[in-house]
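To whoever picks this up:

The parser on our side crashed when reading a file containing two proteins. I've narrowed it down to the boundary between the first structure block and the second sequence. Both blocks are reproduced below exactly, byte for byte. First block:
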Amino acid sequence: MSFAALSEHLGGSIGLAYAPLGLGQPAKSFGDLREGVGWSTMKVPLAIATLIQAKAHPSQDTLRLMRLAITESDNNAAMALWSELGSATEAAAQTQAVLREGGDTTTVVPPEPLRPGYTPFGQSNWSLAAQATFAASLPCMADTG
């Protein structure tokens, strides 16, 4: 079954993006869904920004917060990591810098929530292609182990 046929069969908007492993490799996309709010996927670049700030030697508490943020999608833990990066503007800039290092040249991380009650970083509009490029770059980036 082709992707177009699958998409038609499932109904609604569907999208897929992939990129070969390597730093900044271009992604290929299929489907009509091309971008959306990043939500919890943004916790990965946030955690990496925290590691970079700690010069790859985070405290046990920071490691605990990272584990909770990523494995349990704990927004309170993620916001604690965000606050470790300084002001909201500094945290957004550092998280966005991680995206740039991973080949994502377009995503903007907002410093303040766009919708009340949600994390600012989670509300980043993150295209599927940029997510795939970033994910494919992870093995080649420092402090991503």
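<<boundary where parser fails>>
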Amino acid sequence: MTRPIRVELSAVLVALEDRGSHAVPQILMAPGPDLPNRAFDPDEHRTLELSLRDWVSRDTGLRLAHVEQLYTFGDRAREAVLADGTPHLVSIGYLAIVPLSGVSEPGPNWRPWTQFFPWEDRREGIPPVLARLLPMLERWAAKEPGRMERTALSFGLGEATWRDELVLERYELLYEARLVHEYFRDRRRDVPADLPPFGLSLPLDHRRILATGIGRLRAKLKYRPVLFELLPDTFTLFDLQTAAEAVSGQLLHKQNFRRMIQQSGLIEATGGRSTRRGGRPASEYRLAADAEWELLARVRETQEV
């Protein structure tokens, strides 16, 4: 007899918290903590995305901007943490952006994504957690050919370049190296007493879903104007740069960034000046009309599927 399957939608809801001199990427969590999720009811909604938008709006009151499907997650390892006899759970992961204007003051259910991946923010230099994590990872990597190369490529070691979008690849490497608690939980084994908690663990494979969402967002910064959906309607170049740095986890060269963004055709001056951050008034910008049309057209297209 075929086991029944339960399909749920899991949401990686991302917003930026403006802290003046810098911004902090935040993830909305359900109690536990856990990624927000709901079972999909095909009798209530004709598409998966409409279902996700509807329950997020009803449960949180948040308005979502960019929404896209990630992957389907349904590994058998999930069964180790589910009650015997329950349907096999399949999660369809989604990345969704909450505009800055939609989160006036993040509450306790919003968590910085560095709580789950403390090695992913390099704005203040190499994260301290790597001083303990990398030696353990390198000892594991030295035991088999090919592991060291994967480790170097994933974490930007030696001559390899750090690639911010490889969030999932780094997590998967740590999972394989038995350096995250989920590896042992999935096998119904006790976590070694001497294994530090490298980031907060999440139920099922929700940290894997979260890593996938962060990596997808970072990758999209390189070819789509998705960053603007994290910002208010008008912004300064400083606002834009701090948002890009927050999402990528890396500092950007000020002059090079401003030259690139001003030549991109993505922004246009409003003629206004902002004194929100104190000091000299800064010119305000908004998303250029052509770029905004592209975003609106894409949203309409996904909602009409």
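After patching the parser it read the second block fine. Confidence is low (pLDDT under 50) at residues 299-305. The beta strands are 5-18, 23-28, 37-39, 67-73, 88-97, 110-112, 234-235, 267-274, 282-287.
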